[in-house]
Design a protein that fits this description.
Layout: H1 6-9, E1 17-30, E2 36-42, E3 50-54, E4 73-82, E5 90-101, H2 117-121, H3 131-153, E6 157-158, E7 164-165, E8 177-178, E9 197-199, H4 204-214, E10 217-224, E11 237-246, H5 250-271, H6 273-282, H7 287-296, E12 300-303, H8 304-312, H9 330-340, E13 345-351, E14 367-375, E15 379-386, H10 391-400, H11 409-416, E16 422-428, H12 429-437
Parallel strand pairs: 3-5, 6-10, 12-13
Antiparallel strand pairs: 1-2, 1-4, 2-3, 4-5, 7-9, 8-9, 10-11, 11-16, 13-14, 14-15, 15-16
Helix pairs in contact: 3-5, 3-6, 3-12, 5-7
Bound molecules: adenosine-5'-triphosphate and manganese (II) ion.
Adenosine-5'-triphosphate (ATP) binds near residues 170, 234 and 240.
Length: about 450
């Protein structure tokens, strides 16, 4: 079928003959001496629907057109004419209309009125047919394209790191085990891979191997964490983009993160103006202003120690009192970025005791070259660090965290043979989509959210 996408049909010249196909959003039938039907047709290519005008000149007007209702799928051939109505330049005068599928008006779950996001989560297979989820899907797609272009333009190599792994990058506790052993059996030696395996929590350790051979690299794929946190910012399955830069330190890493986020935000505004206008109108009135503010201003950089100082002097009641040596809570992160600085904040140099083994130990012996990038509303959007490149220090850090260095011989080889300074970070794709769209709940920015107790549609 020679099909014109509706996004292109809407900007084509009056008089053009074309064929469009999609799903009926609304169908208004006017009876009387000159019966006429207006169908708003959407095909997902853009937010706007194309108005199709049908009259009894169509042979199947009575049998098909008059019975159209939301959700029906049709293909329409006709000629673009100047639109009589407001809000669109052209409409399609139907010369023929064929229906593929009907959608029983009584049972079709997507009705004209707005549905709650909670309800739409229960019909995740149909929610992409709504304005909000169509817009989220297009923006998510645009962000992925921008991410790849950003790195490709700078000569980064895209590396595919494994989904099934025997290593645990972030420290014990949050792993989904992968096993083919029958219930009751647990000897890893008898298992499929002959060793205990899990779904990856991060591609970092593996992508480092390519960084230590190819230079600047990135991995971008699904990651899995069995953290039992039912928050609006955590998923059990989420996508992470992880660049790793060669011959680089923490400040190079922070520079890259800042440029990266700024590029994503400004490119989305350029590429998705219609969808962003929708989010601004219906989801969060501040969302576009916040993005522009971030694009136009430098991020604030301060150390963890300075951040603790700001927090203890904030003069407010915390659910968890800020204290040197303890991780920053969401309330602390949000205070820093939303209230105190009103800008994105890069917090660096965290206590080594609360950060993973691979982060580079600083000369003070008690902090590591770590950074978290915090943004308003979402909190932590990026976590990164300069990696420990010294073999002896790395081995000691592993032992101190109860790990067996022998299990990570391949990783230590990178320090044994031609070690060099390198750094990287992880951006949670869904947190980025949340920030860009203003969507409150992370479950609404991924097609099929996996959270505790929920892996069905
Ligand atoms: P948080 O403190 O918010 O739980 P984290 O410190 O565990 O995050 P990192 O291990 O630094 O996160 O992962 C890098 C990035 O991946 C985070 O900055 C965040 O954007 C994203 N991320 C981490 N965990 C999740 C999750 N469960 N769901 C969605 N995104 C996540
Ligand atoms: Mn982190």
């Amino acid at each position: 079928m020679q099909r014109t996408r509706i996004i292109d049909a809407l900007t084509a010249a009056v008089g053009t003959e074309l064929t469009v196909a999609g799903w009926v959003r609304t169908a208004r039938h006017h009876a009387g001496t000159n019966p006429i039907t207006f169908v708003m047709l959407n095909d997902g290519s853009c937010m706007a629907a194309l108005q199709v005008v049908a009259t009894p000149e169509l042979a199947n007007y009575e049998d098909i057109v008059l019975k159209l209702s939301p959700g029906c799928s049709v293909v329409v051939t006709g000629r673009l004419v100047e639109s009589q109505g407001k809000g669109q330049k052209v409409e399609l005068a139907a010369a023929s209309l064929r229906q593929f599928g009907s959608a029983d008006a009584e049972h079709y779950p997507i009705q004209a009125q707005r549905h709650s996001f909670e309800f739409l989560r229960t019909i995740a297979h149909l929610r992409p047919r709504t304005n909000t989820f169509g817009a989220v899907a297009r923006v998510r797609n645009a962000i992925c394209a921008i991410i790849h272009e950003f790195f490709q333009k700078r000569g980064f190599l895209y590396v595919h790191t494994p989904i099934i792994t025997a290593s645990d990058c972030e420290g014990a506790g949050e792993l989904f085990r992968v096993t083919t052993l029958p219930p009751g059996k647990s000897d890893p030696a008898e298992d499929f891979f002959g060793t205990a395996t899990n779904l990856t929590v991060s591609g970092q350790l593996e992508v480092e191997t390519y960084c230590c051979a190819m230079g600047d690299v990135y991995t971008f794929g699904p990651t899995f964490r069995a953290e039992n946190s039912n928050t609006p910012r955590h998923l059990a399955e989420f996508w992470m983009v992880e660049p790793e830069i060669a011959f680089a330190d923490l400040s190079d890493d922070a520079d890259l993160a800042e440029e990266f986020l700024r590029t994503i935000f400004s490119e989305v505004l350029t590429r998705c103006p219609e969808d962003m206008a929708f989010f601004e109108k219906w989801i969060d009135k501040e969302v576009v202003a916040t993005l522009r503010h971030v694009i136009d201003n430098d991020f604030v950089r301060l150390t963890y120690t300075e951040a603790i100082d700001v927090l203890t002097k904030a003069g407010r009641e915390w659910a968890y009192a800020p204290e040197w040596g303890k991780d920053l809570q969401t309330e602390h992160e949000r205070y820093l970025t939303e209230e105190n600085f009103k800008k994105p904040v890069i917090v660096t140099d965290y206590p080594s005791s609360i950060k993973p083994f691979y982060m580079r130990l600083s000369d003070d012996g008690r902090t590591v070259a770590a950074m978290d990038v915090l943004v308003p509303r979402v909190g932590e959007i990026i976590g990164g660090s300069q990696r420990e490149e010294r073999l002896d220090v790395l081995g000691a850090r592993m032992k101190a965290q109860g790990m067996n260095p022998e299990d990570y011989g391949w990783y230590l080889d990178l320090r044994r043979y031609g070690t060099m300074p390198h750094a990287g970070f992880g951006l949670g794709l869904e947190r980025a989509v949340q920030f860009v769209t203003g969507m409150q709940n992370i479950r609404d920015v991924i097609p099929f959210p996996r959270t505790p107790g929920n892996a069905k549609f």
